[in-house]
Known about the structure:
Strand content: 15-25%
Order of helices and strands: EEEEEE
Number of strands: 6
Mean pLDDT: 85
Largest sheet: 2 strands, antiparallel
Radius of gyration: 17 Å
Helix content: under 10%
Strand order of the largest sheet: 1-2
Amino acid sequence: MLVRASKGLLVKEVPPFLNVLLKRFDYDTTTWQRVKLNNPVSVPIDFDVAPYMTAPQGQTSYGLVSILIHSGVRLFHLPSFVLLY
């Protein structure tokens, strides 16, 4: 029996520099295989983590500095894009 479920987390403290990893895979229950998601993702220039914290204090806002993109399956490349101010 399949049950609808969701997962999430709340953060207690945040570091001076925040790295976020998006797991861009889904699980196909018909083939029992992991499937890479290729749909576009929009990334904000400014990001406030306060809604994802248990008790926000101090710095909760971050500015985008760079994006690292994983491509490939076995032999992969990591192209990066750096935002210059």
